[in-house]
Amino acid sequence: MNIKKATFKGGTHLSYNKELTSGLNVETSIPPEEIILPVSMHIGAPAKPIVEVGDKVKMGQKVAEATGFVSVPIHSSVSGEVIAIEPRLHPNGQKVLSIIIKNDMLDTPDENMHPNSDYKNLDSKEILNIIKEAGIVGLGGATFPTHVKLSIPEGKKVEYLILNAAECEAYLTNDDALMMTNSDDIIKGLEIVMYVLGIDKAYIGIEDNKKDAIEKMAKSAQALNVDIYCLATKYPQGSEKHIIKAISGREVPSGKLPIDVGCVVLNVATAKAIKEAVIDGKPLIERIATITGHGIKTPKRMLIRIGTPIEHVLAQCGGFTDAEKFILGGPMMGISHFSSDTPVIKGGSGFLLLNEKEIDLSESNDCIRCGKCVSACPMRLLPLMISNASVNNDFEKAEKYNAMDCIECGACSYVCPAKRMLVSNMRVAKREITAIRKEKAALAEAKAKEAKN
Amino acid sequence: MDKLFIVSSSPHIRSNVTTQKIMRDVLIALTPAMVAGIIYFGTRALYLTVICVITCVLTEWVYEKLMHKKSTINDLSAAVTGVLLAFNLPASASWWIAFIGSIFAILIVKQIFGGIGHNFVNPALAARAFLMTCWGVRMTGGAFIPIDAVTSATPLGILKEKLAESLPSYINLFLGTNVYGCIGEVSKLALLIGGIYLICRKVITWKIPVVYIGTVFILSLIFGQDPLFHILAGGLFLGAIFMATDYTTSPITPKGQIIYAVGCGLLTVMIRLYGAYPEGVSYSILLMNVAAPLIDRYSKPRVFGIQKVKKLKKKSEVI
Ligand code: SF4
Ligand code: SF4
Predict the structure, then answer these.
(1) Residue A376 CB–ligand 2 contact under 6 Å
(2) What are the start-end ranges of the H helices in A203-316?
(3) For residue A47, how far is the Cα from the chain centroid?
(4) Chain B contact for A323, CB < 8 A?
(5) Does B76 have pLDDT greater than 50?
(6) Among residues 235-254 of chain A, which lie with CB inside 8 Å of chain B?
(7) 20 to 30 A Cα–Cα from A77, which one of A58, A148, A428, B206?
(8) Is the peptide bond before A236 cis (omega within 30 degrees of 0)?
(9) Which ligand 2 atom is the nearest neighbour of the CA of A408?
């Protein structure tokens, strides 16, 4: 085990506000009366319910199955009875088919959970299947099915397995909490992944503002061949592309995936979930989340069962005071929502209630060409140029300025003194460029057909 | 739950830097030079500065009122233009010179092109050039003669005209004592303090001022001139720290800023040595202002994940 230092070029410092929750113990949320499980809590095909209204279910029982390779099943986080299967408001803002289960408060465990004290008796395929069947997805917020990420395509080789513990978003401290409480589990999970991928070395990246976590992880990883990188505290250090750049020195080419440069990046919470699935036989039914912001009475870090209504969690934090914005995820990349009447889902790392002072609603002014967005952009784009092109509906120009490479990290909007809505203009540009490309492709296809005839 | 929260695009938090705060920092950074100007040239320096600032702000306000545009005087950029213009005037300038210059700067150079962020040359410098063209005598040479002074020429004037007077010492040049020139340019010490303040406050980076002054130093050395004299004399510090770093009219790419600063330095030395004027800072910056968009276009940083070769190919595709 070695400890090293690294970072990437560009980026910005945020007003972190992590101290709202950083020293707090992780509390276990009181189990709710009922849970709401949307069939889509991951990227990929939605799961298909395999229970019916009136069915009795146990804690950890599979209630919806995967529908294809890029899909994962869903498990009940309580024991009780299915009382409805109907569309409910999903944190993405739409109504999504959800399984509603009434909690009998007994927590009767499902007998189908098999512990495997020695994972080395299993082969990679079996372990990947366990990971899939446990419903594990990227818990940093991306929610991409983990078994897909770990199924390395033919001809590709993993050289860098990176555990992402940067937690560069402001306000959030849930990964920090997890490292303080479960560092052994995380490292065990990492070991399992190394075994699955057949590699003998791994890397862990942690921002240097989490000194205690670094120490904890270093202790747990002592016997393992890993390098721990203390990364400069700078946003967006935890972006997949930038943690790869910092640790391996490699740049993921435009339009390519990390595996194309031999890298796989996993979030610490995902590693812990893998350990619990493989060793303890426990599916993904709970997660740690940060409930914070100046708009909530008592900010907390809590272990919450998946499907718990967010209102139920907020009530345990004393409810909100003068919150004006409710955000799922971090303040830089999270999604704001008009209602907190949704459930906690797998990717729910943070629940933010921000008051008027924190959100800064001042209107945008003219760009003064200060170049701050340029030096903050981790992709080395010229955000002001793309934004201007986008506002003028000149999407060809936006494309020439590499709009498609924008990772929507928000650093440019954050630093802009004129408070311009750079990221939303970026999004418009990206959407339009994609549409134009599709149109062009369709046209080309039609032409080719015509030529054939 | 009754309350509906505000929904908007991420990011949901923003830094506390605003255009107004940046301009306020520039004004603060200009204060030491203002004080030096008052010490060396008396209250006339203050008087002219006040005229410039008031005229600039009023022009902006009236224009925006008439055009039914949102007033931008609160962003303080017009005030900054006012101070910078005054700093580029000789203390003996009449009030109407300051008045006309200010209207020209704000109305013709800034507002007609669309206001803050849209002008392509620095308003204060363009106004100075305009005044020099129309009333050259009142802007140079004799204009620097204080009522009761013995010497008359600016240090660069002495050099250019090969006057018999002796050149001022480095220390005088640095402090601004016993030298003549525009209101804001004489004390390099005061300007330096302002520049360091701006860099510490992250309003500007070291790049443009250091590269600009460095280029002048090296080129004067190459041309067999006294490099120390060349960087300390005239308006180089004022130009390099406060004018060439103007956001709107300088390149936004890191590489572009270096090219631009080298260009400014090169032109300054050329004008000083071979041009008709003793001083070349304003014209150099103005010329480079015009070139800035072009420099930006050809100094785009390499995008993350796109290799050089590919970029070159892309460029040729574009052409
Ligand atoms: S940060 Fe804002 S004001 Fe500055 S150049 Fe970028 S868009 Fe313009
Ligand atoms: S949101 Fe896009 S353009 Fe803005 S800083 Fe991030 S990557 Fe750059």
Answers:
(1) yes
(2) 211-220, 240-248, 268-278, 310-316
(3) 19
(4) yes
(5) yes
(6) 241, 245, 251-254
(7) A148
(8) yes
(9) 1
DSSP assignment of A16-68: --GGGTTTPPEEEPPPPSEEEEES--SSSSPPEE---TT-EE-BT-EEEE--S
DSSP state of B106: I
Question: Whole-angstrom Cα distance, residue B119 to residue B112?
Answer: 8
> Helix axis angle, B281-298 relative to B123-134, nearest 10°?
140
- Apex B284 CA angle, B282 and B285, nearest 5: 65
B196 conformational bin, left if phi > 0, alpha if psi -120 to 50, beta if neither: alpha
Distance CA B199, CA B181 (A): 26
Whether the per-residue pLDDT at B146 is higher than 50: the answer is: no
- Phi and psi for A175 in degrees, rounded to 5? -70, -40
Q: H-type helices in A120-198, by residue range?
A: 124-133, 146-149, 174-197
- Of all protein residues, the one whose alpha carbon is nearest to atom 7 of ligand 1 is A384
Ligand nearest to the Cα of A374, by number: 1
Whole-number Å distance between alpha carbons of A408 and A329: 14
Candidates B2, B7, B8, B12: best to mutate against A (most CBs of A within 10 A) is B12
**B305–A405 CB contact, under 8 Å:** yes
pLDDT in tens, A35-81: 999 999 999 999 999 999 999 999 999 999 999 899 999 999 999 99
Per DSSP, what are the bridge partners of residue A3?
Answer: A228
Q: Give the tens place of pLDDT for each residue, B272-316.
A: 888 877 778 999 999 999 999 999 999 999 999 887 654 444 444
Asked if the interface predicted TM-score (ipTM) of this complex is over 0.95, the answer is: no
The answer to whether residue B2 scores a pLDDT higher than 70 is: no
Strands across the sheet containing A26-28: A26-28, A300-305, A286-292, A350-355, A323-328, A335-337
Give the strand order in the sheet containing A226-231.
Answer: A2-6, A226-231, A202-207, A160-165, A263-267
> What is the amino acid identity at position B241?
I
Q: Which of B9, B13, B305 sits opposite A423 (nearest CB)?
A: B9
Q: Which of B1, B5, B250 sits opposite A336 (nearest CB)?
A: B5
Instruction: Name the nearest CA neighbour of B245 among B284, B206, B197.
Output: B206
Scan for tokens 């952009």, then name that residue: A377
Question: For A1-284, which CATH class?
Answer: alpha beta
Length of chain B: 319
Residue type at position B208: I
Closest CA to B101 of B56, B66, B136: B56
Q: CA-CA-CA-CA torsion for B238, B242, B248, B249, nearest 10 degrees? A: 20
Within A301-401, residue ranges assigned H as helices are 310-316, 356-359, 372-376, 383-391, 395-400
For helices B77-87 and B95-103, give the axis angle rounded to 10 degrees: 140
Q: Domain-by-domain residue ranges, chain A?
A: 1-284, 372-452
Strand (E) or helix (H) holding A228: strand A226-231
pTM of the full structure: 0.90
Give the ligand whose atoms come closest to the C-alpha of residue A12. Answer: 2
Query: Chain-wide mean pLDDT for chain A?
Result: 92
Q: Tell whether ligand 2 has an atom less than 6 A from the beta carbon of residue A412.
A: yes
Asked if residue A418 lies in contact with residue A364, where contact means CB atoms within 8 angstroms, the answer is yes
Interhelix angle A174-197/A211-220, rounded to 10 degrees, is: 30
Match 């923003």 to its residue by tokens: B14
Residue type, A27: E
